[in-house]
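Hi there. Long-time user, first ticket. I'm pasting a complex I've been working with (about 223 residues overall). I'd like to know whether the download I got is complete or cut off, because the file seemed smaller than I expected. Thanks.
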Amino acid sequence: SAVISQKPSRDICQRGTSLTIQCQVDSQVTMMFWYRQQPGQSLTLIATANQGSEATYESGFVIDKFPISRPNLTFSTLTVSNMSPEDSSIYLCSVTDREAGELFFGEGSRLTVL
Amino acid sequence: GQNIDQPTEMTATEGAIVQINCTYQTSGFNGLFWYQQHAGEAPTFLSYNVLDGLEEKGRFSSFLSRSKGYSYLLLKELQMKDSASYLCAVKDSNYQLIWGAGTKLIIKP
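Hi, the file is complete. Here it is re-exported in full:
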């Protein structure tokens, strides 16, 4: 299984600011995803990070709010832009090497927006 | 629409056995996954079923019936550290993962 490092692990942010979360994988992986998990809720897929091209966003999520980069097969970033308290959540990077395979998750980044 | 149902919360006693059920309705099926998530931590992979039947892995087993759209996770010899949320997820025909809301399992001494 891949080892996935996310940073920051947690942060407290002011309303209106932006924060970039980094995800580093110890091996090349085919697919990388960004999830959000709000308190007491299950996982919601934000987008699929595509290497060398624009991310594929799920319904309800847009590039202006959650810009994503994936410059290579081991690294991706998610930016949460113009944050509001509703963005307070855990953001999780996940990877898989096969469409039918299991997902592996980073440790998560817990954001609190004041 | 696509839907996965699992109980919100369950309570069991240390040393006992507990079964967490999951029913699903999805557009196609490419496997069912169980994940464990301790409070404040990321989910960790427990099991994968794509064919009908029981998969056993130590104290944990997972069962699948595709015709019934049903799975369960069986935890034996419960330990306090098994207190966590258990997430059921199904890959649909497009290999999109559909997640259940999770079952919070509380273990009492």
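A couple of notes from our side: Residues 37 and 43 of chain A are 5 Å apart (CA to CA). The two ends of chain A are 36 Å apart (CA to CA).
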